[in-house]
Amino acid sequence: MPKVILKAKNLVKKYGRNETTVTALDGINLDVYEGEFLAITGASGSGKSTLLHMLGAMDKPTSGEVLFDDRPIFSGSDKELSIYRRRNVGVIFQFYNLLPILTVEENICLPMTLDGQKVEKEWIEQLLKVVGLQQRRNHYPAQLSGGQQQRAAIARSLVHRPRVILADEPTGNLDLANSREIIDLLKSMSYKYNQTLVIVTHDPNIASQADRSIVISDGRIKEG
User: Fold this and answer.
1) Distance in angstroms (rounded) separating the CA atoms of residues 6 and 155
2) Residues 6 or more apart whose Cβ sits within 8 Å of residue 14
3) Which of 167, 158, 173 is nearest to 210 (CA)?
4) CATH numeric code, 4-223
5) Most buried residue, 30, 119, 156, 184, by most Cβ within 10 Å?
6) Cα–Cα distance between 37 and 198 in angstroms, integer?
7) Residues 13, 61: contact at Cβ < 8 Å?
8) CB under 8 Å to 158, separation ≥6 — which residues?
């Protein structure tokens, strides 16, 4: 049986107060296994992105807990949460989130720089080669296509060798050809580096490629 690397326990997330309260997550329990490709699907507003943000400690639950390697992440200090985010998970967003004033290479190195770690030139070269951006290393985001920007974002998410990759609609702004390339790249890299891959998606074609797929509806897991 594969090892559970991430576990959500009775996760509840509410926004607002009293009559305006909205329940985004309503008691989610989920095991994510080491090395698997998990797809999280559901309609807009179902809570799937909120769940991903909880797994990545980008937001805190109203109640419940997330365990990484059997250790509760929200019981620690803000500093410990920050270290967890920087060193154990790589996050890929729909809108790339590259800094426009930095080159491709500088954007990729940014997580290491912020963490005060030494940048390994050989590792950066390998990442640039794998994502096909060696010839674009000194370009700025505005000089890249959408697919190239997402490739840079993928390399950035991998630079600190995280054990888990969390991707929130990573192909949402791309055409069909680029979408296929990005998903193939994510799958091949997660396999190559033995990483767990969790993707939030509306696309049934992406979900069908996953090892496992779950459906979120009204803040609850309905299938999977």
Assistant:
1) 22
2) 21, 22, 23, 24, 62
3) 167
4) 3.40.50.300
5) 156
6) 6
7) yes
8) 90, 127, 165, 189, 193, 195
126-176 pLDDT, tens digit per residue, is: 999 988 999 999 999 999 998 899 889 989 988 888 999 999 988 877 788
Comparing C-alpha atoms, which of 164, 161, 158, 162 is closest to residue 35?
A: 164
Task: Locate the DSSP E strands across the chain.
Answer: 4-15, 22-33, 37-41, 63-68, 71-72, 89-92, 164-168, 196-200, 212-217, 220-223
Residue spans of the domains in the chain: they are 4-223
| Per-residue tokens: 30 | 């989920």
For the stretch 43-60, pLDDT in tens is: 888 899 999 999 999 899
Question: SS3 of 193, please?
Answer: coil
The CA dihedral of 123, 88, 90, 8, to the nearest 10 degrees, is 160
Angle (nearest 5°) at CA 170 between 192 and 123: 35
User: Does residue 87 contact residue 116 with C-beta atoms inside 8 Å?
Assistant: no
Distance CA 11, CA 100 (A): 35
